[in-house]
Every structure is written in C-alpha cells, then in structure tokens.
Amino acid sequence: MQTKIGTVFDCIVFLQAAARKSGPSAACLSLAENEFIRLYISKEILTELAEVLHRPEIRSRFPELTDEIVEEFLDQLRSTAETIKHIPKRFSYQRDVDDEPYINLAVEAKADYIVSRDKDLLDLMTGRTDECKEFRRRFRPLKVIDPIKFLKEIEKVQSGGE
User: Could you give all domains of the chain from N- to C-terminal order, each with its CATH number?
Assistant: First the structure.
C-alpha cells in the first residue's frame, strides 16, 4: 500500500472548505475525508479555526456558517485529521509569526505539503529573503502550494504520474 501524502492546511483553506462545499478547498478536505491524504492538525490550529469561524464578520460574510454547521465541521475535522500534540518550534518566521504554527506542524509531522492561499506562506517557495531561502534549505521536501495546484498534484499521483 502506498504511503499517504502528509498535508497541513492553513486556516483560510479550512474556512473556505467550511463555507463553500463545492470549491477547491472543500475538494482538498474531501481527499482527507476519503483517506487519499493524511491531514495533520494541532490543538492550536483547531483553536484558531474555531475562533475564526465564530467571528461576527465571518458569519456575516458566510451566513451559511451557523453554530451547528461550524460545530459539525470542527467535529468532522477532529475525526478526519491526525492531531499532533507536541510541536516544537523549529522555524521562526518573522515575516508572519501567525504562520509559524502551520510551518512547525508540517515540519514535526514530516508533511509533504502545506496547502495555503496565504501569500506569506506561499512566498516561502519562491521568496528571495534569507528566511525563505533558509526554509527551502532546511525543509527541502516540504512544499507550500495553493489548493488548486495541490489538487492537480494529487491527480498526477493518483493517475500514476509524478
């Protein structure tokens, strides 16, 4: 049996998956729900996600996110994803310290991908700053990719291409 692709989603990907059941982020999450990929989360990320999903400005933008829908989404996520409990700080990202929990979770879990729409995270792959170069040097196999590109990567893997 082939090893599942290890993945970390950022908060925006989770938000989009909860709010738009037919979008690319929801398609990414369904890969985890159908056990095509291994999704990793942490208590810190779940706490942030719950807080974001309960924000009044998010609720007004996405009125379909009722308390019941949000709780069902979080419960499903807890049962779908593997929770990593101890996450040492292996990488400091001064550009956006709020992204560090996702980076450090991916490093600790030995994930293959961080799926994100966050420019600060995506720039880790192409940025010219010393921080970005250090990330690529230290964590070479780990890729930061947006949901659409991630779906294309998974499609290639599933069809036997590389």
Answer: 5-156 (3.40.50.1010)
